[in-house]
Design brief:
The complex is a heterodimer of chains A (about 120) and B (about 110).
Chain A: E1 5-7, E2 10-13, E3 19-24, E4 31-37, E5 44-50, E6 53-57, E7 64-68, E8 74-78, E9 87-94, E10 108-109, E11 113-117
Parallel strand pairs in A: 2-11
Antiparallel strand pairs in A: 1-3, 3-8, 4-5, 4-9, 5-6, 7-8, 9-10, 9-11
Chain B: E1 4-6, E2 11-14, E3 19-25, E4 32-38, E5 45-51, E6 54-58, E7 61-66, E8 71-76, E9 85-92, E10 100-102, E11 106-111
Parallel strand pairs in B: 2-11
Antiparallel strand pairs in B: 1-3, 3-8, 4-5, 4-9, 6-7, 7-8, 9-10, 9-11
The chains are: A mainly beta (about 120), B mainly beta (about 110).
């Protein structure tokens, strides 16, 4: 079965550079989530999109922006990179079924993009 | 104080033991309570979820939610070496685009 695709898998950047991470959700999934996971840390929710509109926002720095395109893929743009931005960035996708309360729309996680800022 | 607190362990148990993993939380608006399993260098995988309070069982796994105490648990019966992984609790106020808050994750080692 098709899974969430993230590219690139590894990225090395210098301080103050920019980076763009891409996420291709599972076909027919309409919701995308971005998470940042530092070494030994829990995944921190950054932002999510449903049907190309931002649906929720977490601890995403102002230096970061994201969007979901017409084909439902999403990109996370990161500018003025800092050493502390080094982390594993996960994208997850789900199909938002409006089945009423109690029905959870499972998030399927991609393999992650490992960003190293030197 | 973090919204979701989870003991990072590590927790080491012998094969066949019953494992108990727990999380506490502070946001009373959380409605969905999930348990994810994460292997090294991989993305988290959903094990099970519970809506509101109550218990849910799936094979060797049982999830419990006590909203009055803001406390959730995951029990693993007859633990196997293949269960060795990091277990993360996660919570959200809604589903379908709502932000999900994860606990720190508990590293579990099951010794053969």
């Amino acid at each position: 079965a098709a899974g969430v695709i993230q590219s690139p898998r590894h990225l090395i950047k210098e301080k103050r550079e920019t980076a763009t991470l891409k996420c291709y959700p599972i076909p027919r999934h309409d919701t995308v989530y971005w998470y940042q996971q530092g070494p030994g840390q829990d995944p921190q929710f950054l932002i999510s999109f449903y049907e190309k509109m931002q649906s929720d926002k977490g601890s995403i720095p102002d230096r970061f922006s994201a969007q979901q395109f017409s084909d439902y893929h999403s990109e996370l743009n990161m500018s003025s990179l800092e050493l502390g931005d080094s982390a594993l960035y996960f994208c997850a996708s789900s199909l938002t079924k409006r089945e009423g309360r109690g029905s959870y729309n499972e998030q399927f996680f991609g393999p992650g993009t490992r960003l190293t800022v030197l | 104080q973090k919204e979701v607190e989870q003991d990072p362990g590590p927790l080491s148990v012998p094969e066949g033991a019953i494992v108990s993993l727990n999380c506490t939380y502070s946001n009373s608006a959380f409605q969905y309570f999930m348990w994810y399993r994460q292997y090294s260098r991989k993305g988290p995988e959903l094990l099970m979820y519970t809506y509101s309070s109550g218990n849910k069982e799936d094979g060797r796994f049982t999830a419990q939610v006590d909203k009055s105490s803001k406390y959730i648990s995951l029990f693993i019966r007859d633990s196997q070496p293949s269960d060795s992984a990091t277990y993360l609790c996660a919570m959200s106020e809604g589903t379908g685009g709502f932000k999900t808050i994860f606990g720190a994750g508990t590293r579990l080692f099951v010794k053969a």
